[in-house]
Amino acid sequence: MHARRRIRTGFTLIEVMVALVVLSVMALMGWRGIEAMLRTREIAQANLETTARLQTVLAQWEQDLQQLEEGRDSGVDALSFDGATLRITRHRPEGLQLVAWGVREGSLYRWESRIARTRGELQTAWAQSQQALVLDERRLKALEGVQGWQVYFFRGNSWSNAQSADDVEKDSSQPPAAGAGKGSSTGSGTGSTTGQNSGTGAGTGTGSGNQGSNAGADKDKNPNAPTRKKLPTGVRMQLQFQDGQGYGGPLLRQIMLGPQS
């Protein structure tokens, strides 16, 4: 009688190794999926923060322009751009304040002066604004990753570079120049009588006088009247960003100020 052969059950070494490889691949794929989800979340969060920051900066820029002081003779330009710095003289309840925007070292900075209550204080702030964007501790880094920027003004139904020639207008608040006029008159007469007595007489006379003339009746045509810059009816800002900042191209933002008197 032959011995019954024992049947062995189980996995071979090759089968175990194959199973381990499959499990490893599945675990790796799962980890990569989780990592991709986390990375996507981080990028989305960063983009959200960048967008929120950009919206805050643009809102502040528009607010500065909406508070533009245009009616008071402050001794400085209400709005000026020299190619590097945009200066805005804005109205505050306590007085006037100078705000400067500029790109320095790859970032967009904003600086505001202390409240100025006199023309001298405002002129001093104007002179300090160029260095204030670099050295003053009150400067605020508004936006990073900015390569450059340009500002345009809307005049005469078209946009033009803010550094082009400014429109000027006569300041009608100044008194007109006084003019002078001269007049002269001459007269002569002769007379004679015949009779017991005869005589002749002659006389001449000249006269001149000065009178004031209103040479400045038309104030707008007075050549001696001082001029001032005419504010634009719109301002446009163009920002160029550095590579890798998440922007597809330059950013354009504009605001209309309305007609100026």
Protein described:
This protein is an alpha+beta fold and 261 residues long. It contains 2 helices and 13 strands; from the N terminus they run αββββαβββββββββ. The protein has helices spanning 13-66, 119-135, and strands at 79-81, 85-92, 95-104, 107-112, 140-144, 146-155, 158-161, 168-170, 179-192, 200-213, 227-229, 234-241, 251-256. The strands form 4 sheets. It has a 5-stranded antiparallel beta sheet with strand order 1-2-3-4-5, sandwiched between helices. A 4-stranded antiparallel beta sheet has the order 7-6-12-13, covered by helices on one side. The longest helix has 54 residues, at 13-66. The radius of gyration is 41 Å and the shape is elongated. It starts with 12 loop residues before the first helix and ends in a 5-residue tail after the last strand.
Which characteristics define this entry?
261 residues; five-stranded antiparallel β-sheet; four-stranded antiparallel β-sheet; 2 helices
What is the 3D shape?
elongated
Low confidence ranges: 170-226
Total DSSP E strands: 13
**Order of helix and strand elements from N to C terminus:** HEEEEHEEEEEEEEE
Strand order of the largest sheet: 1-2-3-4-5
- Could you estimate the helical fraction of the residues in percent? 25-40%
Structural class: alpha+beta
Strand content: 35-45%
